[in-house]
Write a structure and sequence with these properties.
By secondary structure, this protein is an alpha/beta fold. The protein has 3 domains: 205 residues, no CATH class; 206 residues, Dimethylsulfoxide Reductase, domain 2, CATH 3.40.228.10; 131 residues, Beta Barrel (Barwin-like endoglucanases), CATH 2.40.40.20. The protein has 25 helices and 28 strands. The strands form 8 sheets. It has a 7-stranded mixed sheet with strand order 5-4-19-18-17-6-7, covered by helices on one side. A 6-stranded mixed beta barrel has the order 23-27-24-26-25-28. The longest helix has 19 residues. The structure holds ligand MGD (2 copies), iron/sulfur cluster (SF4) and molybdenum atom. Iron/sulfur cluster binds next to helix 1. One ligand MGD binds next to helix 6, helix 13 and strand 23.
């Protein structure tokens, strides 16, 4: 009995053990009750200096992944295809050789770019993926790299790289001290925060309101967050840019600005936004001009204000303009690097300052078929299908996916699934057979969260408070299992051994030596040179070490060459021409047209965990949500099935009436539409529904290459 803090628990352990949840960006500290070696309950750890006892339903379900009989525990190989496919377990050695052979053969026959890589969301939540996964991908030297980032946050990175000099140098709302929190297109009450690691958002919001602060939300749906806001306004999907530009116009016209001394190009912004008035924005966005003016004045007058925009504004056609305008709003009002405004976290492992993550670059190469620029070494995942299906030099012939499900999570996923079947070879590093991995020839399943050591390289750098926490594995890895870093190290070696052209022996030996060091050893070294906290301290305090509230750090921490910030990043502001052209477009919209947006629910986790009992019970939540007036106008009864059609495809799904929707807007959750059911190796999926990404359009892109998943024009018929 008792709290055992270090080293995996013995088989028959009974007692409590600290753990960590890696399912979302809130990185909650956990307390697990274990009986006879099995987790019987999970609570939030009150002693964690960041999460302070917070937990959500997904964290409670964390052990369901570990215990899940559907989860793959040994590599499998596919024999046959589609409905007739059979999966046979093979041993690690054979599986790793098969994958290495498949990838190397494609590269040897057709060149390096014949390998396509897709990295999914859980990579950001695994230490081994940072220390070994990314270096392994680098050794493949392909330009056909894709990830979930281009259906998510590339606009943030694109803007931060240009304005602050590093793509992950992102100012974080100082939620614990701000008095005005202005939110565009985020739903932290369901998502628990993103690009703002903010566990226990509800508690921090209550404190904000208690000290007289306000939260104002702009969202086309009256979300869980909108409902607890001081004020919520509907905004037409895809139109936030004109609202934000109008706010800048008001700030400058009324001289409500007080930028820091190291901020340049204020006059350029004045010129760029001069014709974007609140009156111009009102008919386009649905947000009244007087509301835009009032919010702007309140924001400028607040004693510490923070504007924040998340998925709803990064995944639309002008995501970069929105993220730029949000930075301008914060910078012009002097709220960046200010307590109560936004601040830059100082993590114990400074991935930004240490160059562990590259600063960013753009348009060094372009996609072969459509000529879309890379960002940060990746092409938009929206071009992956055509790069597989279009013959010619540089065509992708083999794909490796790592912890991702692009068939459900990226635009026109259905066509991507078809493209996967045309490959010479496909492999997946994943713990489940799902809509994507079912197309692979081999699946390599690594260990899961409770079996591996954890430290959040990424999210401490985006957190609302400076803390550091190392969580040793709760359970030992079974002898015949592999950690993800071990899989990556082996793949790097075995692929390289088979490549016709490889680096010299000396370089290969150096790489190999690095890959041999475990993530924990690499982390220990990084901490030692960072000198903020040591591994020894973290081991002594598995609940986490508090390093204090965020502090002003500019201009010292700026990564720009001149340590100054330009408000006119031209790769973004040049895109205003495209915005103007789209606003001036004389195309008359179809009167039957509705705009489709996505949604997240507290009990959903992107496209997976739809087989855990705990998260799937309760009211169904797969339906298309639609305003009652829009239903009535089409003679549609709630609860019936409707056909939703976009340029790309069409789905049939149950519809529900929802006063919470802005009229003219409909919503579907993403990550639904499962096709792998109840087989021994598959998800025993317990939810109905369709994939929103059978409707989203790979042609709709932001200037950064990010997909415009929201605001998709659709029609809905009975
Ligand atoms: N229309 C629409 N589409 C969206 C979104 C939206 O809002 N609307 N959201 C987008 C966003 S923000 C994101 S991040 C993407 C997510 O898109 P993806 O990353 O492609 O999809 P996930 O559902 O996160 O898939 C995670 C996969 O990782 C596997 N996995 C889980 N844990 C591990 C592990 O420890 N190791 C390994 N190797 N595998 C593991 C799971 O089995 C699953 O297959 O979806 C995007 N798609
Ligand atoms: N429970 C749960 N939590 C999650 C996830 C999950 O799947 N489930 N996924 C995690 C991931 S990968 C991410 S990236 C984060 C995302 O975190 P958030 O961005 O907070 O999450 P979303 O719920 O996607 O919020 C987007 C909001 O934008 C709104 N919106 C849509 N279009 C527009 C528009 O044009 N303008 C405006 N102003 N708003 C718009 C939507 O109605 C929605 O409320 O969540 C993370 N947390
Ligand atoms: S909010 Fe929920 S899913 Fe996110 S880290 Fe905390 S417990 Fe896990
Ligand atoms: Mo995401």
């Amino acid at each position: 009995m008792g709290i055992l803090t270090n080293g995996p628990v013995p088989d028959d352990f009974t007692g409590t053990r600290l753990g960590v949840c890696n399912l979302c960006e809130a990185i909650c500290g956990l307390e697990l009750s274990i009986e006879g070696g099995r987790v019987t309950s999970i609570r939030g750890n009150e002693a964690d200096p960041l999460s302070r006892g917070h937990i959500c339903p997904k964290g409670v379900a964390l052990a369901d992944i570990y215990d899940d009989p559907d989860r793959l525990r040994r590599p499998v190989r596919r024999i046959g295809r589609g409905a007739d496919a059979e999966w046979v377990e093979i041993d690690w050695d054979e599986a790793l050789d098969l994958v290495a052979e498949g990838l190397a053969t494609a590269a040897n026959r057709h060149g390096r770019d014949a390998i396509g890589i897709y990295l999914g969301n859980p990579n950001a939540h695994s230490l081994g993926s940072s220390t070994h996964g990314l270096p392994m991908i680098k050794t493949l030297r392909t330009r056909n790299r894709f990830s979930a980032s281009s259906v998510d946050q590339i606009p943030h990175q694109f803007v931060a790289w240009q304005m602050y000099g590093h793509q992950l140098l992102l100012p974080i709302p100082d939620i614990d001290r701000t008095s005005y929190f202005l939110v565009f297109g985020a739903n932290p009450m369901a998502s628990n925060g993103s690009l703002m690691t903010v566990p226990d958002f509800p508690k921090r919001l209550r404190a904000l309101k208690k000290r007289g602060g306000r939260m104002v939300v702009l969202d086309p749906r009256r979300t869980e967050t909108a409902k607890v806001a001081s004020e919520h306004h509907f905004v037409r999907p895809g139109s936030d840019a004109v609202v934000l530009l109008a706010m800048l116009q008001v700030l400058l016209a009324e001289d409500l600005i007080s930028p820091a001394a190291y901020v340049d190009d204020v006059e350029a912004v004045r010129d760029l936004v001069s014709d974007f008035t609140p009156e111009h924005a009102e008919p386009l966005s649905g947000v009244p001009a007087d509301v835009i003016r009032r919010i702007t004045r309140e924001f400028a007058a607040a004693d510490g204000a923070a504007a924040y925009g998340r998925l709803g504004v990064s995944t639309h056609g002008f995501g970069s303009i929105c993220q730029w305008a949000i930075q301008c709003l914060n910078l012009l009002t002097g709220n960046v690097d200010r307590e109560g405004g936004l601040l830059f976290p100082e993590p114990a492992v400074d991935a930004v300052g240490r160059g562990i993550i590259g600063r960013g670059h753009f348009d060094i190469w372009r996609s072969r078929v459509r000529g879309i620029p890379e960002y940060g070494g990746e092409l938009p995942v929206s071009v992956m299908r055509e790069e597989i299906e279009t013959p010619g030099d540089g065509q992708i012939r083999a794909v490796l996916t790592v912890a991702g499900n692009p068939v459900l999570s990226t635009p026109d996923g259905k066509s991507l699934a078809r493209a996967f079947d045309s490959l010479d070879f496909m492999a997946a590093v994943d713990i489940y057979l799902n809509e994507t991995t079912r197309h692979a020839d081999v699946i390599l399943p690594p260990t899961t969260a409770l079996e591996r050591d954890h430290y959040d390289i990424v999210f401490h750098g985006l957190a609302v408070r400076n803390t550091a926490r190392f969580t040793p594995a709760v359970f030992a890895k079974p002898d015949d299992a592999r950690h993800d870093w071990q899989v990556f190290a082996e793949l790097a070696r075995r692929v390289q051994d088979r490549l016709d052209s490889k680096p010299g022996l000396r370089k290969r030996l150096a790489q190999r030596a690095r890959f041999a060091l475990s993530p924990t050893i690499q982390l220990t070294a990084l901490l030692a040179t960072g000198r903020k906290v040591s591994m020894r301290q973290m081991r002594a305090h598995p609940e986490g070490v508090d390093l204090g509230p965020l502090r002003p750090t500019l201009p010292g921490r700026l990564q720009t060459k001149d340590k100054r910030i330009s408000l006119n990043p031209t790769l973004v502001t040049d895109d205003l021409a495209r915005l103007r052209a789209s606003l001036a477009s004389t195309e008359v919209p179809d009167p039957d047209q509705l705009l489709l947006i996505g949604r997240r629910h507290q009990q959903d986790n992107n496209s997976w965990m739809h087989n855990t009992e705990r998260l799937t019970r309760g009211k169904p939540r797969h339906q298309l949500l639609m305003h009652p007036d829009d239903l009535a106008a089409r003679d549609i009864e709630p609860g019936t099935h409707v056909t939703v059609t976009s340029r790309v495809g069409s789905v049939v799904v149950e519809v529900a009436g929802a006063e919470d929707m802005m009229p003219g807007v409909v919503s579907l959750p993403h990550g639904y539409g499962h096709q792998v059911d109840g087989t021994r190796l598959g998800h025993a999926v317990k939810v109905p529904g369709v994939s929103i990404n059978d409707l989203t359009d790979p042609e709709r892109l932001d200037v950064s290459g990010n997909a415009a998943l929201n605001g998709v024009p659709v029609t809905v018929t009975a």
